[in-house]
Amino acid sequence: MFDLDFSNPALSEAELLAHLTARIEEMLTHEPDLLMSLLYRNDVEEKAILAALQPSPNETVSMALARLVLERYKQRSASKKRVSIEQRDIPEGWEW
């Protein structure tokens, strides 16, 4: 997702945010449909996306969207840690 390895422990949150911001800025310019598709596919809330797309004197649109993506990743990681599904409980073809 977004050409980043979120699980890389060598990257700090600030570095991830900087990389995400740059990638999202590029996608806003050249691949806006793909960007929106990735946001929806990763369950970033539509209301939050619409709010982030509004001009703000405090941060760019790409920075606001990057913050949403990073926050969603953290939520997904926490959820995966809380919910433990044993491999034998997953039907064939549904494993990841």
Kindly state the mean pLDDT as a whole number?
Answer: 85
What structural class do you assign from the helix and strand content? mainly alpha
Shape: globular
What is the number of beta strands?
0
Short précis:
The protein has a domain at 13-79.
Can you describe what's shown?
This protein has 96 residues and is an all-alpha fold. It has a domain at 13-79. Helices cover 59% and strands 0% of the residues. The chain has helices at residues 13-30, 32-41, 46-52, 61-82. α1 (13-30) packs across α2 and α1 (13-30) crosses α4. The protein is globular and about 50 Å long. It starts with 12 loop residues before the first helix and ends in a 14-residue tail after the last helix.
Defining traits:
96 residues; mainly alpha; 4 helices; 59% helix
How are the secondary structure elements laid out?
Layout: H1 13-30, H2 32-41, H3 46-52, H4 61-82
Helix pairs in contact: 1-2, 1-4
